[in-house]
Structure formats: C-alpha cells, structure tokens
C-alpha cells in the first residue's frame, strides 16, 4: 500500500529555507531596492512614500517571480518523477521552490500589515493566504509536486506586470514604444502561463481524481481542487482588468495617430 497523508511524516526540513527566503526579501525591500532604485532610476526619490513602498514590494515581486519560475522550468524539464507520479513524487527542487514562495509571501504580508493604511488590500491577503495554504502542504509533506510546479510557472508573467507599473511611475507615455511593447509582452505572457494553460491543468487534475493515489490524499485533495479554483478565478479577473487596460491604451494610441494624420493633412492643404 502506498503512502497516505496520515502516514507521511511531518517534515519541517524545508522551513529554514522559508525563513531565509523571508529574511532575504525583507532585506531586499528595506535596503537593496531603495539603494539600487535611487541610483538607476533617479525619479524614485521624488515618489511619494506610498509609491516608494509599492515600488519596493514590486522590486521584491520581480526578483521572486524570475527566480522561482526559472526553478520551475528546470523541474519540468529535468525532474521526470513529478510527471510520472504527480501526487506523491518527492521532489526536493519543487519543495524548495515552495519554501521560497512561502517565505516571500510571509515577507509581503508583513510589509502589507505594517503599511496596511497605505497599501493594504484585503484581496491580496486572501490571495497570499490561499497560495500559502497550498504550498505549505507541498513544502511540509512533499505531496502534489507536479501541480505545485505547474502553478508556480504562472510567475513568468509577473515581471512584465511590475514593469508596467514602474514605467507608469517613471512618467513614460502609455503610447511610448517601450510601454506598448511591455504591455504586449505582459498580456501575451499572462494569457499563455495563466489562462491558456487552464484546460491542460484541469485535464491533468481530472485524470487523477478517483485514482488510488488521489484517495490517499485525504483532506489535502481539497487543496488541489478548491484552492486552485479560487486562484484561477482571481487570474481570470486580473486578465479581464488587463484586457480593459490594453483596450484603453489602444484607444489612446489610435486617437494620437488620428490627430497626427489630421495635422499632416491640414499642413498639406495649407501648402
């Protein structure tokens, strides 16, 4: 008989990685981001206190997303066990990734709690709580490595989302080339890593439901279904908001081009 959630040993050996992750991101937020940002983006110093707090949290978010998503791609390519046994394969790489995520989100929650009146949003507490609940089980018990790794690859879109915010605060025009290109990359990446993959993910979930391995999960099976359903609902909401933003930018861009064309026609007539 295979392992069950009741017989799997409680394993806190990845907790130190989560603690180190939290401390590192707190340091990045407090010291690294302000120092580097003021040096390479002078306009950072002219931002309001709230904007600087938000900037520093997004700096953390970008570092975290880039690092973790690369780890996930490595696991997907080289860790064949998680594809063969998506529920019970013990993957140190995936568990480490989850520990880093838990540490990062703990740091983010601490920052949002301290500055709740300035940047706190209940929505993000809910999102982080749902994510940490799921990754806690992966980190602690080594279950669901394939699905955890699959979900974390969604972080590929995060740097582009943050970059859009940075460009906006640096006063780049929404119709500038760099703003438009980043927006295009953000929307395409978000769609492919968070929206388009939903059928593939849920097809794999459906393929394991009812199997012996799935039954041995016990109550943790709820993590696989309910938590991920909540996160996908949030992703759909974000994508809707993103599409609305793209629509607004395209309208501005079209209006700007129309005005340029009209001015050009007027000049030709005068000549």
From TrEMBL:
SMART domains: TLC. Keywords: Membrane, Transmembrane, Transmembrane helix. GO terms for biological process: lipid homeostasis. Residues 50-251 form the TLC domain. It is a multi-pass membrane protein. Coiled coil: none annotated. It comes from the Eukaryota. This is TLC domain-containing protein. It comes from Lottia gigantea.
